[in-house]
Amino acid sequence: MASNRIGRINEEIQRELAALLRTVKDPRVHGLVSITHVDTTPDLRYAKVFVSVLNQQDGKEVIRGLKSAGGYLRRELGRALSLRYTPELLFQEDDSIDKGTHILKLLNDIERKETGGNP
């Protein structure tokens, strides 16, 4: 039962943070930045926020900008959610989309080799 509650809280935090990203004025947070997943601890003290950035070269810079804006994001998140504690936000770059693209490319290469090189 508690895991259902944590799951709903994770989804709500993800939704609110996605909306709040547009209000961050830090110039390092630019381009296509999206929140892919949120993982909150059971005591709701910490929330690990996985961030995907379209341009991978800017990923580390975007994470630094989000960490810098963490206090603002946490305060606004606390206003939007009715929780006893607003979790501390820990931002982490998510490269799962790149890994998925790489795996699809490998599978397509294998398929081309099996069919004799014809696309």
From TrEMBL:
Main localisation: cytoplasm
Alphabetically ordered keywords of this record: Cytoplasm, Ribosome biogenesis
Superkingdom assignment: Bacteria
One GO process term, biological-process aspect: maturation of SSU-rRNA
GO MF term list: ribosomal small subunit binding
Listed GO CC annotations: cytosol
Compartment(s): Cytoplasm
Pfam families: RBFA (PF02033)
Functional description taken from the UniProt entry: One of several proteins that assist in the late maturation steps of the functional core of the 30S ribosomal subunit. Associates with free 30S ribosomal subunits (but not with 30S subunits that are part of 70S ribosomes or polysomes). Required for efficient processing of 16S rRNA. May interact with the 5'-terminal helix region of 16S rRNA.
Family: Belongs to the RbfA family.
Quaternary structure (record): Monomer. Binds 30S ribosomal subunits, but not 50S ribosomal subunits or 70S ribosomes.
Protein name: Ribosome-binding factor A
